[in-house]
Amino acid sequence: MWLSVISIAVALYALLSLALFSQASFQASLLSFTPNTGYKTLGLCLILISLSCIGIPRQVVAFTCGYFFDVSLGILYATLSVTVAAYITYMFASLFQHSYIAVKYQKQLIKLNHFLSIDTFSKALIIRLLPVGSNFLTNILAGIANIPPRPYILGSCIGFIPQMVIFSIAGSGIKLANSTHITDIEQTKLNNFYL
After folding, report:
1. How many CA atoms lie within 13 A of 71 on its CB side?
2. Is 36 exposed, middle or buried (0-12, 13-18, 19+ CB in 10 A)?
3. Taking Cα atoms as reference points, which of 98, 148, 92 lies closest to residue 120?
4. DSSP alpha helix (H) spans, the chain
C-alpha cells in the first residue's frame, strides 16, 4: 500500500513540475538564473544535492538539469547530484545504527542487511531501475542497516541513469519548445512592425 502511495506521489510531483516548467512566466524567471558560469553551475548542483538529501524526487533533479544544461550535460550533472546525495544520506543514516529506531526494528534491519549484503551491486541496481519508491528512504534504510557502501552507491549510480536520461530529455524539450515559441512570437512582432 505504501509503495503505491509513494509511487503516485512521485508521479504527481513529476507532472506538477512539468506543468510548472512549461509556463512562460516561470521559464522567464528561471532563465534569469541560468547557470552560465562554473560557479553558478556548481551552485545549482549543490542546491540539487541538498534538496536530494532531504527527499526531492530524482526525476525533478534530472528535469531541472535537462532544462538548464541540455541533454548530455543534464544527464551527467543529474546523475552526479543524486549519487552524491545518496552517499551523503547513506553516511548520515549510518550514524544512527545504534539509535532507538535501529534497536526497535533490529530484526527487520538484520533481515534487510542479510538480503542486501549478498550481491549488493545487482540488488541496488535493480532497486534504482524501478521507477517507484523513495530514493531518500532507500538511502536511510541502507545506511541504518549497514549495507556495504561501495557496491550500493555504484549500483545506485548506474541504476539512476535511465531515469536521468528520460527526464533530462523532457526538461531539455520543454526549454526548446518554449524558446521556439518565444522566437516565433518575436518574429511575428518584427513582421508586424515592418508591415
Report:
1. 8
2. exposed
3. 148
4. 2-21, 24-31, 38-53, 58-94, 100-104, 106-117, 120-129, 135-144, 149-194
Measuring CA to CA, how many Å separate 71 from each of 12, 80, 166?
Answer: 23, 14, 9
Residue 34: all three cell numbers together: 541560468
- Nine cell digits for residue 23: 509556463
- Whether the predicted pLDDT of 143 surpasses 80: yes
Separation CA 82–CA 5 (nearest Å): 22
pTM: 0.72
If we measure between CA atoms, which residue out of 120, 122, 123 comes closest to residue 146? 120
User: For the stretch 60-89, what's the b/e string if a residue is b when 16 or more beta carbons lie within 10 angstroms of its beta carbon?
Assistant: bbbbbbbbbbbbeebbebbbbbbbbbbbbb
Q: Report the share of the chain in percent with pLDDT over 90.
A: 26
Longest dimension (CA), the chain: 78
Query: Which residues have CB under 8 Å from 171's CB, separation 6+?
Result: 21, 62, 63, 64, 65, 66, 67, 68, 74
Q: Quick one: cell of 131?
A: 521507477
Alpha-carbon gap, residue 88 to 121, rounded angstroms? 18
**Position 47, amino acid:** I
C-alpha cell at 92: 548520515
Residue 161 DSSP SS3 = helix
